[in-house]
Amino acid sequence: MNTESFIDEIIANPLDDSLRLIFADYLEEQGDPRAEMIRLQFEMKELDSHDPKWQKLRRREIKLLEAHGGFGRAPAVAKVLGTHGGFVDSVELTVARFVKLQDELFEGAPVRDLHLKSKSRKFDQVRESRWLSQLQGLSVKNNEATDNELIRLVRTASLQNLRTLSLDAVDMTSGVVSELAASPALSSLQHMALKSYRIGSGACAALCESTFVTQLRSLLLTGDQTNESLQMLAESPNTEHLEKLIVTGTWSNTGLVALQSGPYCRKLRSLTLRTHYGGPGFHDGAFLVDAPLPELRELSLGHGINDRILMQIIEGYPELEVLDLGGNLIGDAGARALAQSPLLGSLRKLTLTANQLTPAGARAIAKSPHYRKSLKLYLRSNNFPVSEVKRMKEEFGRTFGNLGQHEEWNYRYRQAGR
Questions:
Q1: Strands (DSSP E) along 206-295, which ranges?
Q2: Residue 85: CB partners within 8 Å, gap ≥ 6?
Q3: Helix orientation angle between 253-261 and 227-235, rounded to the nearest 10 degrees
Q4: Is the CB of residue 339 less than 8 Å from the CB of residue 368?
Q5: CA distance linking residue 222 with residue 220, whole number of Å
Q6: What's residue 277's pLDDT?
Q7: What whole-number distance in Å separates Cα of residue 331 and Cα of residue 297?
Q8: What is the pLDDT of residues 45-69, one digit of tens each?
Q9: Which pTM does this prediction carry?
Q10: Using CA atoms, how far apart are residues 90 and 252, in angstroms rounded to an integer?
C-alpha cells in the first residue's frame, strides 16, 4: 500500500484505530515525521490535560502540525476543532451547512466528533444522515431545537456508536432527558453533558434510573438541580463508575454532605458544584473530614466558600491536584492556611480569582515552603491595587498569580462600593 491507499482505507474505516498505527509504521519507514505525530496523539488521548506530560506532548504536536500538517480535508466553511491519529477528527458546522455538505465532509476525513450549532429549520434532517453511525461524539449547541426535535434525534438507532453526547438548548426540558435516558440507541455513552436552565431534579431522577448510565464516566447537568439531585446521584448504584461530575443548581450543605457520605459516586476524581446566586450556598460544616470522596483529585465550588470551609477542604482532601474556588469569600486567613498546608505542594492548579485576598494573602502563598513555580495560580480580581500587582510580579515572577493590568479597575470598583 502507498500513502494514498492508506488514507482512503482509514477514511473508509474511521472507527478502526489500528489502521492509523499501522500507517504510522509505514510513514516511519518512509522517513515521514508525521509518524511521530500520529503516535503522540494516541499517547495524549490516554493522559489528563492537566498532566505535565500531556502539556509537553501538546507543544510537540503543535510544532509537527505547523511544520508538516495532518491528513484529511474538511469543507472550507467547517471549523476543524481537533485531530486524532494524524487525521481531521473533530469539526464544527451549522446545521444547514452540515445537511448540505455532509457527504463532502465524511468522504474527505474520518470525522468521528461532530459539533452542530445555530438555529435551523433543517434540524430534523440531521437524524436522517447516513453518516451518524460513524460518530463517537455529537454536540448540539445554540440551536434552539424543540423538545420533539431533540427527542427524535436521541431515539435515532444509528447513534449506537456514540461515546460522547452534549445537548445545549435553552428551552430543553426534563422531558427530553427522560426520553434520552430510555433510549436504547445510547447504550454506549461514556460522557454526557446536558445544558438548559429548564432541567430540574426530575431529569436527574430519570438518569439515575437509566441502565445506560452505568457506563458513564462523566456527567454535566445544569439547570435547577437541588439537594435531592445530589442525594439521588449518591444513592443510585448506576452512578458507581462516575469519575467526573459537574452540576449547577440551588443547594446547601445537605446536598454536599449527602454526596460525600452516600454509598455510590465513590470513584469521583473531579467534582464541580456551582450554586445559583441567591440560593443558600454552602456554609461551615459542608465538608466531612472523616468521610471524604476517596478518589477526588479535582474540586471546583461556588459560591459561599469562606476561610473556614477552605480549612475543611484542606483537612479532608489533602491530595487534591486542582482546586477552583473562584468567586467565593476567601480572604487572607484562608490563604495563610493554604500556605501552611502540604496541599499547596500537591496542587497543579489553584484558582482564587474574585475572592477577598489582599497582597498579604498572596505573599503568604508565594513565600510558603510548599509553593512551586510550576503551580498554575490564578489571583485576578482580588483586593490588589495595580502598584502592588507590579511589585509582586517583580518579586515573584512576571507570571505570578496570573495578574493583569485590569486589576486597577477591579480594585477601584471594590473600593467605591465600600
A1: 218-225, 244-249, 270-275
A2: 10, 17, 20, 21, 23, 24, 38, 41, 42
A3: 0
A4: yes
A5: 7
A6: 67
A7: 23
A8: 998 877 889 989 999 999 999 999 9
A9: 0.90
A10: 39
pLDDT at 400 exceeding the cut of 50: yes
Q: What is the pLDDT of residues 85-120, one digit of tens each?
A: 999 999 999 999 999 999 999 999 999 999 999 888
Burial 348-359 (b: 16+ CB within 10 A, else e): bebbbbbbbbbb
- 123, 128, 129, 134 alpha-carbon torsion, rounded to 10°: 110
Residue type, 136: Q
Amino acid identity for residue 287 in this structure: F
- Record the cell numbers describing residue 158, joined without a space: 444509528
Chain centroid to CA 131: 26
CB-based contact 174:198 (threshold 8 Å): yes
What b/e readout covers 15-50, taking b as 16+ CB neighbours within 10 angstroms? eeeebbeebbeebeeeebebbbbbbbbeebeeeeee
Angstrom distance (rounded) from CA 165 to CA 379 = 33
State the average pLDDT for the chain.
90
Q: Whole-angstrom Cα distance, residue 200 to residue 206?
A: 11
Q: What is d(CA 370, CA 221) in angstroms, rounded to the nearest whole number? A: 35
* 418 has a pLDDT exceeding 60: no
